[in-house]
Queue: 4 jobs
Job 1
Amino acid sequence: MFWIIVITVLFFTMFTFLFNAPSSLVSWTLKKFALTSKLDAQDVSLTFNGKQLEEHAKSEFIDYFNEAYILKRHFILKGNEQLFLNPETTVTPFILTVKKGGKIVNFSIYCYDDTIEVVKQHKKKVESYSLSSEDLKVFTLHTNGLS
C-alpha cells in the first residue's frame, strides 16, 4: 500500500511538471529553437552601402528588426548558399555584424517593396527568412538617401 501511494505521488508530480513547466524552462527552450535572438545595439555594427550608420539610427534599426515578424523560412539546399549570400538584385543590403562572445554572425537584410529578406551567416551555415515590418520599410525609405 505504501508503494502505491509513493508511485502515485511521483507520477502526479511528474505529470504536473510536464504540463505546467516553470517559465524559465519554457523561455530557455524557446530561445534554443528560435530562428534569431533579440539583438543588442552594443554587440552590433550596422553598415549600409559601405558606411557605418550613426548610433541613433543603428539602435532604431535594431529595435525595428527585433520587433519584426518572421513570415517564412527559406530552406537552402547544399551548394545553393551563394545564391542567397550574393543574390542578383539592385537592392543595397543593410549589413549587420553581431559579435557576442567568440561568435560572429553576419546578417544581410534586403528591404524590398513587399517583404524584407534576411540572410544569416554563422561560419559556413547559411539561413534565410522573410520578415514583415512596416517600421523597417519606412526606415529603409529614409535611409535610401545615403546610397
Note: The chain has a mean pLDDT of 81.
Job 2
Amino acid sequence: MHQAFSVVLLAAVSLVCLSLLFFHALTRVPSWPLAESEAADVVALLRDANLSRSAVIYDLGCGWGSLLIALAKAFPDAHVRGVEISPFPCFVARLRTRYLPNVSVVGKNFYKCDLADADAVTCYLMTSAMPRLSKFLDETVRPGTTVVTVTFWFRDRSPKMVKNGPGLRGAVALYVWPANSAPGHTG
C-alpha cells in the first residue's frame, strides 16, 4: 500500500513538472510568481489610472494567481479575469481565488481571448513575448485601455508612468493603449 502511494505521488509530481516544462518551452515564459511589492506597484499604477469602480481587468498569463488576489482586494467592485495556458498554475490560481467573487480564471492561450471589454490589462511575461503582445493589443483593446507590465516593457511604446522597484527587482510601467511609439522607433 505504501509503495503504491509512493508510485502514484511520484507520477503526479513528474506530470506536474513535465507540464510546467512543456508550457515553458511552448510559451518561452516561465510560471514565475509575482512578489507582493510588484503586485502593490501594479495596484498603485492602476489606482493612478482612475479606473471605474466596475472596471474589467485582465491579467494575461496570470500564473499562480498572486496578482489576481491583489487586484481583487484592491478593486472589489471590478471584474478581475485571469488567463493562463499552463494547466497546473491555472489550477492553483483557481484554487487560490475560489472565494473571491470578482475573480474568474480561464485556462487558455490569451492570444485567443477577446479583450474588447477590457478597461485594463496586466502582464508579467518575458522580453520575447512583448512584440507579439503589442500587436495583439493593437488588434483587440479599445483606444485608451490601461496596460500595466511588470519588469518587461514594450520596446516600441512609451509608458505614461513608471514605478521603479528597489534593488534588482524590475520596474512596473503603465501605458495608455495604443501608447505612442518610443522616440527613435521607426516601426
Note: Residues 45 and 174 are 7 Å apart (CA to CA).
Job 3
Amino acid sequence: MSENETAEAVEAPAAEATEAPGAFTSAGTVSTEDLMEALMDVVDPELGIDVVNLGLIYGLHIDADDTATVDMTLTSAACPLTDVIEDQARTATDGLVKDLRINWVWMPPWGPDKITDEGRDQLRALGFNV
C-alpha cells in the first residue's frame, strides 16, 4: 500500500462518522469512552435516568482540537427539554472537551429497545415496567 493509500484509509472512517449517526470516533486527546462516562451525568429530567443508559446517544465524534459532536436523540421529538439536556451536557463535559456540539437526530426514532440493561434496572427501581 502506498503512502497516499494509507492516508486515505485512515481518513475514511472519520469522514463517515460525521455523515451518519452511530459512529464513535476520536481524533483528539479525549477518548469516546471518557466522553460517554461524562455524559452519564446527563439525566433525562422526566425519567430520571442518564442519556447514555436510555440509549439516546447515537454517535460521538471528537476532532483533533478536542471539539466533540454528539449525535443525540430524545424519547420524543416533541420533548421541550432540549435546552436543559444541552446545559447538563455542557456542564458534564466542561474541562474534558474544548467545545461540545449536540446534533439532534430523529432517525432512527428512539424506542425502548435502545435502553441498556443498566438503564432497564434503573427504570424498574423507579417502578417502570420495562
Note: The chain has four helices and four strands.
Job 4
Amino acid sequence: MDTNKDRADRRQRTGMGVVGVILREDRFLLIRRSKTVTAPGFVCFAGGGVEAGESEQDALVREMQEELAIDIVPNQRIWESVTRWGTELGWWLIEAAHDLDPVPNPAEVEEIFWLKRSEITPRRDLLGSMPDFLGAWQQGAFKLPIDY
C-alpha cells in the first residue's frame, strides 16, 4: 500500500516538485494542507513531488487527482523556484473545466478556497513559496491571464 510517508520519501529522493496554478476568472484555487502532510495548515496552490521517472506534467495530473479528484491539463510552465529546503519547483498554469468541482482528499487537503490575489497577499498562513510566486508575478517574471 502506498502511504503518505512512502510518497514523501520518494519526493525527497527526487528533490523536484510541481505547483498547479488554476484560475477561474480572477480567482485562484488554493488549498489548506492537512495536518498529516509536511507544512500542515499552510495555504498554497495544490501540487506535490515529482516521482522518479515521472514528468512534471504527469506529476501534476496525478497530484490533482490525489489531492482534489479533478482532471486537468498542464498548459504552460510559467516559473521555477527553489524552496528554502532545496526542492526545485516547476510552477504550471493549468487548464481545467470552468465548472470543475474539487473534492479535497482529507489525507492531504483540509479545505479549498477560490481567492482573488487581493485576498491572498495579506494572509499570514501562506506556505513560504507563495509570497515568492506573488512577488515574481508582480515584478513581471511571468504573465498570467489576469493583471496583477
Note: The longest strand covers residues 73-82.
